[in-house]
Structure formats: structure tokens, C-alpha cells
Amino acid sequence: QEEEKPGEEKTILHVKEMYDYQGRSYLHIPQDVGVNLRSTVPPEKCYLPKKQIHVWSGHTKGVSAVRLFPLSGHLLLSCSMDCKIKLWEVYGDRRCLRTFIGHSKAVRDICFNTAGTQFLSAAYDRYLKLWDTETGQCISRFTNRKVPYCVKFNPDEDKQNLFVAGMSDKKIVQWDIRSGEIVQEYDRHLGAVNTIVFVDENRRFVSTSDDKSLRVWEWDIPVDFKYIAEPSMHSMPAVTLSPNGKWLACQSMDNQILIFGAQNRFRLNKKKIFKGHMVAGYACQVDFSPDMSYVISGDGNGKLNIWDWKTTKLYSRFKAHDKVCIGAVWHPHETSKVITCGWDGLIKLWD
């Protein structure tokens, strides 16, 4: 067993001025972009995106995930197999603002804290790192010598010092950032943990694993209070909570998206099954339009697929990337803007 050394962290600022004429950094939410990014209500009605309007290029290998800045969505964070993490503008000149360097192997997952001031990265070098979004500094690093496959901050304002990571050794590990210590382990899965999603006003979280099960946990209680596994189930390596908090959309490895209730019984909704795409063993992200009219997902052929939520009909599909289209997010304030990322190293904006 070779001992993994944490990569030396550094950061590159790609813009001349860190602050604007009023002394505000890029974390400040812009107001002149055509939509109100501070709004707390979703757009009334969403429409199908039709064409590519921008490409963010800069990663030298495949992009593994994209995450929008919490609430406003004015910044975009991406992580890649080139071991780097990049922060981009979603509006204006759509520049690359900063690169975060510090992992020695491909970065698998990223997660903003609730305010967006910090984010966590999880990489195949077995390290989880906490970064400052504004200065680019690496604040701390965590490892239990296993590979972290997914990472999530506890979204509660009063628990921003706690995060959970799903590991290659079947455990979900909870760290306290303040002490750097592991404070809880959820050890019930029988295979590597793929996803963690908070539900029920963040009192619980749902995890999926290579063991093909879905488990529901009360926060800080290391025994799953719900275990969902059917002989017919496949593993579900990508899970997203719907904007209204009622449904979990799960990308299932048998080329369908399954919908589970997210409130108490976690029942499979047999009336809503979305298919017609080929995921071919990739953990393609699923997302909803903010008004809940559409479900979107990339696939193994690089296509973006858009279904009607009510009828489950596949409405639209088009080639988005040359290789796997792994990530797809619908902008929370926009009627038709979707961001995709792929293993061709590109991030694209569709409208």
C-alpha cells in the first residue's frame, strides 16, 4: 500500500481585479443579468432549451461534476479528471475566475456550503479538502485512507461545521471541520457508497450504494431506519431531490430513472419511470426544471435527454458532448438555461 501524499495546494486567479470598484468580490450576486438571482420563487413556466450558447473550456481532461453557487447560481464550480477544480462566471463574460490545485488524482465530487463561501472536494487521492471560494486557499484536509466517492455538507445553518462522505469501504463518514475528527460512522451498506442526499428539512439523508440498496438515515444516528432493496433493483449512482422536496430521482443502471417518495415511506412511484436513454454504467446526473415540468439527464452517448414530468414522455434529446455527458443542471432562476458537462473536458450552456 503506497502512502498517498496530499498534493501541495495552490490557486490561480485568472482575472486582473479580485474586487470591483465597490470593493466586492466575485461572490457578490450581480443584478444586471436579466433575471433576479435573489428571488426565492422559481420561474413560473420553464421551456425546453434549444441551442448551445456558450462553451466553458479549460479543463484538459473529462469534467466529472458541475455545481452552481447556492441560491443565486451566478457562479459555476467544476471538478475534473485533470485533478483541478475551476470556478466560472455564469453571466457576463463567463470567464474562468479561479483554479484550485491540490489533488494528485482525479477529483470525483464537489459540494458548496450553504452560503457558498467554502466548498469541499473529494478525490481519488483519498483526500477530502476544504477550500475558501473567494481566496482559493485550502483551509483543511481530511482522510480515512479510503477513496471518497461523494461528499455533502449538512445544509443546516447551525451545522455548517459537519459534513458526510460516502467511501469506497462501504461507510458513510461524518467529520467535524473544527476538530478535524471523525465524529460518526454510518456503517450498514454492503458496497461502496455512491450518493448522499439530504431530505425532510435536512433531518435525514438518503444514500445509495453498489449494494443496489437505498438507505435512509436520521442525522447522527448510525443505524439506517429504512432499507429499500428489491431483487429487481439495480445500483443507482446518481440521485437528486426535486425542487419541491417531495421526490427523489434516481438514475438506475438498467437505463431508467426511478422516482421514490422523499417524505416518509420512500415508496417507488411506479407511475413515473423515465426511459429511452442509454446510461451504460455511468453515474449521469439527473435534474429537474425549477417549475417541475421537466426531468433532464445526460447519457453514455453524450446526449442530453429531457422528459415531461407529468407524462414521462421523452420530449427532446440532442448531442451535447462527444463523450459521456455526466452532468446536467437546470439553472434555478432561468426558464430554459441548462448546463452540461462531459468527459470531453467541456462545460456547455444551453438555452
From TrEMBL:
* UniProt-listed Gene3D superfamilies: YVTN repeat-like/Quinoprotein amine dehydrogenase (2.130.10.10)
Q: Which GO terms describe its biological process?
A: mRNA splicing, via spliceosome
Per UniProt, subcellular location reads as: Nucleus
Identify the GO cellular component terms for this protein. Answer: catalytic step 2 spliceosome
Q: Which SUPFAM superfamilies match?
A: WD40 repeat-like (SSF50978)
Start-end of each WD repeat:
56-90, 100-141, 186-218, 286-317, 318-351
Superkingdom of origin organism: Eukaryota
Extract the SMART domains matched here: WD40
- Key words, A-Z: mRNA processing, mRNA splicing, Nucleus, Repeat, Spliceosome, WD repeat
PROSITE patterns from the entry? Answer: WD_REPEATS_1, WD_REPEATS_2, WD_REPEATS_REGION
* The keyword Isomerase is annotated on this UniProt entry: no
Q: Does the keyword Signal apply?
A: no
A single Pfam family it belongs to is WD40
Please give the chief subcellular localization of this protein. nucleus
Matching InterPro entries:
PRPF17, WD40/YVTN_repeat-like_dom_sf, WD40_PAC1, WD40_repeat_CS, WD40_repeat_dom_sf, WD40_rpt
- What PANTHER family does the record tag this protein with? PRE-MRNA-PROCESSING FACTOR 17
Q: What is this protein called?
A: Pre-mRNA-processing factor 17
Source species = Equus caballus
Q: What is the lineage of its organism?
A: Eukaryota, Metazoa, Chordata, Craniata, Vertebrata
